Amino acid sequence: MSESSRVAGGLVDRTKPLSFTFNAQQLTGYAGDTLASALIANGRRLVARSFKYHRPRGIFTAGSEEPNALVQLRRGAYQEPNTRATVTELFDGLEVTSQNHRGSLDFDLMAANDFIAPFLSAGFYYKTFMWPKAFWEKVYEPIIRASAGLGRLSGAPDPDSYDKGFLHCDLLIIGAGPAGLSAALAAGQAGTRVILADEDFLLGGRLNAETHEVDGKLGSHWAAETAAELAALDNVRTMPRTTVYGAYDHGIYGALERKTDHLATSGDKPRQVLWRIYAKRAVLCAGATERPIAFGNNDRPGIMLAGAVRAYANRWAAAPGKRVAVFTNNDDGWRSAVDLAARGIEIAAMVDTRDIAPLAGLPGALIAMGARVQDTSGRGGLRSFTLSGGQKISADCLAVSGGWNPNIHLTCHQRGRPVWRDDLAAFVPGADLPVGMRVAGAANGALTLGASLSEGWTAANEALDDLGVAPAGAAKPKADDEPAAISAFWHVKESSARAWLDLQNDVTVKDVKLAHQEGFRAVEHLKRYTTLGMATDQGKTANVAALAIMAECTGKLIPETGTTIFRPPFTPVPIGALAGRARGKDFRPYRLTPSHKWAADQGAVFVETGMWLRAQWFPRDGETHWRQSVDREVSQTRASVGICDVTTLGKIDIQGRDAADFLNKVYCNGFAKLPVGKVRYGLMLREDGIVMDDGTTARLGESHFVMTTTTANAVGVFRHMEFCRQCLWPGMDVHLISATEQWAQFAVAGPNSRQLLQKIVDPDHDISNEAFPFMACSEITVCGGTPARLFRISFSGELAYEIAVPTRYGESLMQALLSVGAEFDAVAYGTEALGVMRVEKGHAAGNELTGQTSARNLGMGRLVSKKKDCIGNVLSERAALNRENGLSLMGFRPVNRSDALSAGAHFIARARNAAMENDEGWMTSVAFSPSLGHSIGLGFIERGHERKGEVVRAVDLVRGKDIEVEIVSAHFVDPEGARLRV
Amino acid sequence: MIINHPLLGPRDAAEFTYLGDATLINRPDWQAEDAAGKFHEYLYLRDNPAGEHRELWFHEQGDRSWLVVTRNTLTHEITKVELARDVALAAGRDK
């Protein structure tokens, strides 16, 4: 098919033809085209269906404000819905499909909605779907779900990659139109670090769409030369295809750079980059967006914004119509007629709402001053329109201009409120700008070229002055100011047919009036009730006219009516870009233990514990169920010796003259008198008296301690202790450092653990029971001089040690322990066996330290010292934490030993119903005990200590279990602790 | 947001974790009369000002300093950043 509507000139590269498909139809365009300009050049008018009424829609704008021309790009997993054709750069092989229709685009079955439009007005879903109640699930919801949304997601994972990056600059210039280029020249030549970002792929903004001159050159030529000049400056980074979408606190801006959207494939490059830009100063040169006038049936394909019509003709050499008319309330609209006529396109009529002298002669065109367009006709695309006087004019394109709205969005991202200017009939930025931001050019209400260039230049020089940089003294670019007078005009009152305000959401003038009638008059209510200004365009072409109509209804002025709050992003940002590389396994970093590689070689199964990957168990040949592996690891440890990597426990090195006193304050039990060479269990409370964490702390010297925390709380405990040190007791001589990564630590547990260790501990260190009793600690050497720390502590309940070596020796030590342990049949055990043994021994862990349990609940009430100041001791005496019928941590065993207990079951007295009011507590941890040969559990139950031997029900309604359990001591194995001390 | 660390200069707020009102420095005396009441007030009762607020931030991804940041809750303007240790010492806290 030929490009029937292509005219001469323009900024497309005719040496680079491109082919693409629209709904499988082969079309052509040129490099430099957008999808929209190529569709127009091919004479394609109907490109989409509207959201609610499925009305035929065409291309309405030439920029990111596009409400209508939303399409799906690419295929398969690369398919991207709801993409604006007006900002899609054409490339060879681009596949485009239309969306939001059933049947073909030309014959959309859902267009039936248009005939029942009276029932689908503003807020219809609040009224329609109220009754009957039974209809909701079966009828309404399926219908709503089927009709909702526009395009379709592929449903497949996004195959592209996305990056994030950080940039710093002295001056960020947002927008590379006349004001932005002028600002960039001023700042760039002065040598300061400048970033110039523009959403378009071609710098120049409206200069590329107009026929104005700058410094005696055609605007687009001046823009190209200036862009080249800036590119040659090392201190200027120009970023085309980059939308600065948000202004955040303290000069931080969010920007989305589209790296490969204009290419057929990304290769292995990131498709888009999300930048966080730190700017000392910023100049917003975001330009202005044209707005339409509402009149009857003003949504047909072929009815477009006047500035867009001439942009297509001037920049892309694509004529939006063969016979074009213009409807305007301002001087700028005339330029479209003049520019198109100059390109040989027939002008049918020039309709101006103002009763003034015509601004230009347009041979052959009807000139109607003080006139209005009342209605239009043409199914599938404009054929003619009627003036308010009744005169019918045939045209296939109607260019509409209701004036220009400065793009003030980023000035309002920190709750700045815009101010109304009657002479522009538009909002301009208020005085309350984000820190460091200035606004220049059309975004600031300077809607003419000369003023724009001048404001950009001045704003940059003011920013340089703030930064203490001397200006370069070059000449300011100059241009004339074109006529831009306007007389506010929002909608044609004589129109009886529906007049659209928000094309994307199908909101009409009548809907706004209805919202007013029904009391939704505040702008935020108006938005929610009618959906005005929602979705991908956020009402960029719609909002101000709707506010004006609401003001008209309420008899208020537009500034009194106000605007809704502008929030980032300025244009849509893909979720993929916000996620960046943080997806799948890379969602967050993960940490590996020193023995990880060794464990992986053994075929270990790993489990995530926080960021750590820990060996959960080590399956052996012939083991088909995890329980077989875990039971073996437990039995072998209890019978001989087992080794477990416990590096993940938090380690905090504590030093200083006041270290002992400091520990005495952060632990609720006494630490001041812990002798050197000893370890003590420590219980840490929060200030509210609830248990925060527990662990052991070893005193290696008079002023040197090493604390361990639970794996889960390592970061939080360290933060808390720094708070105590710096904020509560700043006079203490104590210093903390996290040493979790510095030391590899292994538990060596079981009756043969000492004999095993004696084989690797260097002979000058005596670790006999007499010399190194239970809870001893010492700095030693192993394997012929390797420094190590040995702690005689036990989590398993067996004779046990923990041995630490510098991390780089961790893997070797694991191998050495198992190698010398071969004669004892030493076994490596994982977190599962670790958990089984701690349940057998009755030690509390994460399941019990829930942030809701007190020391008393854990049976450790007596540990909380009343004789000293420590975190949490005052509020641990609260009545609520000391109730007589409070919960106690107890052991539970099934009456029928073959029953398997389940964690989360609630305890109910045997004679009672399984109901909330009879709840007496819950099971926190369960395990199959290989030592006892049956399932065991730990749990909290009211008055537990008085109830040993009582049988209650453990009811788990989720898993459908109701098991009789006996309340027993939490210490199932070796309750006297004899094994620890041999 | 950017926090101007007294030792390290301007740092992104993402490097910090937030605790809350800087009055958490003023931990009551455990032996005071009505210590329980005073601790209750210290721990649970806060002003919620619309405007200037002194609050504790921890430079967790940095030098591990606790800072007292004076921030306007309406504008996020930060007018003062101090080392919490200095603030605590000036308030007479010691051991």
Offer a concise description of the structure.
The complex is a heterodimer of chains A (982) and B (95). With 982 residues, chain A is of the alpha+beta class.
Largest sheet geometry of chain A: 7 strands, mixed
Strand content of chain B: 25-35%
The tally of helices of chain A reads 20
Largest sheet of chain B: 4 strands, antiparallel
Distance between the termini of chain B: 34 Å
Secondary structure: number of strands of chain B: 6
**Any idea of the CATH class of the largest domain in chain A?**
Alpha Beta
CATH topology descriptor of the largest domain in chain A: FAD/NAD(P)-binding domain
Overall residue-averaged pLDDT value of chain B: 97
Structural class of chain A: alpha+beta
Backbone CA Rg of chain B: 14 Å
Task: Say which CATH homologous superfamily of the largest domain in chain A is assigned.
Answer: FAD/NAD(P)-binding domain
Number of domains of chain B: 1
CATH architecture of the largest domain in chain A: 3-Layer(bba) Sandwich
Low-confidence stretches of chain A: none
Descriptive account of the structure:
The complex is a heterodimer of chains A (982) and B (95). By secondary structure, chain A is of the alpha+beta class. Chain A has seven domains: 1-155, 2Fe-2S iron-sulphur cluster binding domain, sarcosine oxidase, alpha subunit, N-terminal domain (Ubiquitin-like (UB roll)), CATH 3.10.20.440; 162-288 and 406-467, FAD/NAD(P)-binding domain; 292-402, FAD/NAD(P)-binding domain; 489-574, Arc Repressor Mutant, subunit A, CATH 1.10.10; 614-648 and 743-843, 2-Layer Sandwich (Gyrase A, domain 2); 649-739, 2-Layer Sandwich (Alpha-Beta Plaits), CATH 3.30.70; 883-982, Elongation Factor Tu (Ef-tu), domain 3 (Beta Barrel), CATH 2.40.30. Chain A contains 20 helices and 50 strands. In chain A, the strands form 13 sheets. In chain A, strands 8, 9, 12, 13, 14, 15 and 28 form a seven-stranded mixed β-sheet that branches. The mean pLDDT of chain A is 95. Chain B is of the alpha+beta class and 95 residues long. Chain B has one domain (2-90): Folate-binding superfamily (Folate-binding fold, 2-Layer Sandwich). Helices cover 18% and strands 35% of the residues of chain B. Chain B has two helices and six strands. Chain B has helices at 35-44, 84-90; strands spanning 2-5, 9-12, 17-21, 52-58, 66-72, 78-83. Chain B has a four-stranded antiparallel β-sheet with strand order 3-4-5-6. In chain B, strand 4 and strand 5 form a beta hairpin. Chain B is globular, with a radius of gyration of 14 Å. The model of chain B has no long low-confidence stretch (mean pLDDT 97). Chains A and B meet through helix 17 of A and helix 1 and helix 2 of B.
